[in-house]
Design a protein that fits this description.
This protein is α+β, with helices and mostly antiparallel strands and 224 residues long. It has a domain at 42-192: Lipocalin, CATH 2.40.128.20. It is built from three helices and ten strands, in the order αβββββββββαβα. It has helices at 2-29, 170-182, 196-222, and strands at residues 47-56, 66-69, 75-81, 86-93, 96-104, 112-115, 135-141, 145-152, 156-163, 189-192. The N and C termini lie far apart (71 Å). Residues 8-23 have low confidence and may be disordered. The structure holds 2-acetamido-2-deoxy-beta-D-glucopyranose. Residues 97, 99, 120-121 line the site of 2-acetamido-2-deoxy-beta-D-glucopyranose (NAG). This is Lipocalin/cytosolic fatty-acid binding domain-containing protein. Keywords: Signal. Residues 1-20 form the signal peptide.
């Protein structure tokens, strides 16, 4: 009896899982339904940013929801060209650089960018580089962080979490991820970047604390 109940639950779980996967993939692979943040002031998002995480959304077999640190800290520099509707995004990391160009086609939707032309830079010369042709959705843009989703129908679908500093409060990251879960945007891989500086900073704090405590103990012993 128990066994039957268990099998039923298992089947139900698997079915539920399979159907939800199906809806989420098909809805977003064509870039539909990706929400934009309203009232973006494009001038406020220009300048230098750091890449904190790259979240993959494609439900390929090669992505299994794994999370890992990548020992690199890419910076992104966004500039507006003359007309206020042409954007350049310059991505720079140890391995090389790449420059994207985008156009804002509708001034009333400044958070929706369409790629224009090919990317160039040294990263593009790497054989595994796939030229990006598609749209970028500014899904969140506040003073200290921003979320961009890159979508190319049936080809690429990923988000980049950017921050003005090389670190971002874990609570902000959690809220970004929760929001994606709410919108049924699957996260099938998490690449965490710019973590070295944070962990070494944390290590420094620990070392200093440990040193101070040791010193304090020694001092108290001496002055008993
Ligand atoms: C890409 O090409 C433009 C125009 O030729 C050039 O100004 C820019 O520096 C190049 N960017 C990179 C990253 O090589």
């Amino acid at each position: 009896m128990y066994r039957l109940f268990f099998v039923l639950c298992l089947c139900y779980g698997l079915l539920g899982h399979a159907s939800s996967e199906e809806t989420t993939t098909s809805v977003y692979e064509h870039c539909g339904n990706l929400q934009l943040q309203e009232n973006i002031q494009i001038k406020l998002i220009t300048g230098t940013w750091y890449v904190i995480e790259v979240l993959q959304h494609k439900t390929d077999e090669k992505f299994n929801g794994e999370k890992f640190d990548v020992p690199t800290c890419p910076s992104v520099f966004i500039t507006l060209a003359g007309s206020d509707t042409d954007l350049k995004l310059y991505w720079n990391e140890d391995l090389g650089d790449v420059e994207y160009q985008f156009k804002i086609r509708d001034r009333t939707a400044p958070g929706f960018w369409t790629s224009s032309g090919f990317q160039n830079g040294t990263l593009v010369q790497v054989t595994s580089y796939d030229q990006f042709a598609g749209m970028v959705y500014v899904r969140k843009a506040i003073s200290n962080h921003m979320v961009l989703t890159f979508c190319s129908p049936n080809t690429q679908l990923y988000s980049v979490v950017l921050a003005r500093d090389k670190t971002l409060d874990p609570r902000d990251l959690k809220s970004i991820v929760n929001h994606m879960h709410l919108q049924k945007l699957p996260i099938t891989q998490t690449k965490r970047t710019c973590r070295n500086s944070a962990s070494s900073a944390r290590a420094t704090v620990w070392m200093t604390t440990a040193f101070c405590l040791t010193y304090l103990m020694w001092y108290l012993q001496q002055h008993k």
